[in-house]
Amino acid sequence: MPPVFAHGALRLYLLALLEPGPKHGYELIKALSERFGGTYSPSAGTIYPRLAKLEEEGLVATHTEGRRTNYSITPAGLVELNRRREELATVENDISASVRRLADQLRQDIRVNMQGLRADLAATAEAARSTARSAASPAGARYSKEGDRRLREAEMLVQSFRDDIRVELRRHAGARPVTPVTLETVKTVLDQARISIRNSLDD
Question: What is d(CA 92, CA 95) in angstroms, rounded to the nearest whole number?
Answer without folding.
Answer: 5
